[in-house]
């Protein structure tokens, strides 16, 4: 019985520490909230919402992504302990001349955010379709035990901008 109580206490402390740390430290920039839209009204607690964010690619200047994710309300959402849904949508666009800050690996993580107290993360990864000179972004959610097949993909054809020649993404893939 004591072992069970100690285990419960340890799990509680772990959950509290995970909730207090917020989004994963690996991301380089916080996404910018554009707006939230309520989807389910809750009495005396926060509503369920869809939240839309903007995020600039930290390794590729001139590319921005917008993603929308559900955010649970209610009591669990109010205290930050709700396990968020795996749904996410993604749209990335060229917003200026493209330049690469450094090389990257195919499928490299561009952004990561915690979506539950325990082991669930949303990730945005980047790749390059070298044949077509197109950047490919994928958003998905994973869990330690079981991930989600729900995902969204967005592509950014790298185009010339203001007379400048378009760089080739293939030149910036790490081998």
UniProtKB/TrEMBL annotation:
Per the UniProt entry, the signal peptide is 1-26
Q: Which domain of life is it from?
A: Bacteria
* Keyword annotations: Signal
Q: Name one Pfam family in it.
A: CreA
Q: Which InterPro entries did the record assign?
A: Uncharacterised_CreA
The UniProt entry's GO CC annotations, sorted and at most eight, read:
cytosol
Spell out the protein name for this chain. Answer: CreA family protein
Q: What is the lineage of its organism?
A: Bacteria, Pseudomonadati, Pseudomonadota, Alphaproteobacteria, Hyphomicrobiales
């Amino acid at each position: 019985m004591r072992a069970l109580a100690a285990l419960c206490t340890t799990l509680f402390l772990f959950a509290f520490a995970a909730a207090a740390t917020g989004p994963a430290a690996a991301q380089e920039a916080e996404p910018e909230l554009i707006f939230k839209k309520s989807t389910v009204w809750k009495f005396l607690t926060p509503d369920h919402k869809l939240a839309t964010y903007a995020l600039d690619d930290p390794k590729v200047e001139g590319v921005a992504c917008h993603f929308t994710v559900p955010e649970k309300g209610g009591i669990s959402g109010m205290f930050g302990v709700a396990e968020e849904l795996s749904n996410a949508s993604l749209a990335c666009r060229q917003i200026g001349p493209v330049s690469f800050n450094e090389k990257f690996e195919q499928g490299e993580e561009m952004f990561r955010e915690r979506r539950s107290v325990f082991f669930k993360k949303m990730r945005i990864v980047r790749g390059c379709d070298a044949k077509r000179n197109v950047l490919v972004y994928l958003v998905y959610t994973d869990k330690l035990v079981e991930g989600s097949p729900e995902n969204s993909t967005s592509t950014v054809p790298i185009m010339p901008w203001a007379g400048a020649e378009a760089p080739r993404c293939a030149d910036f893939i790490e081998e």
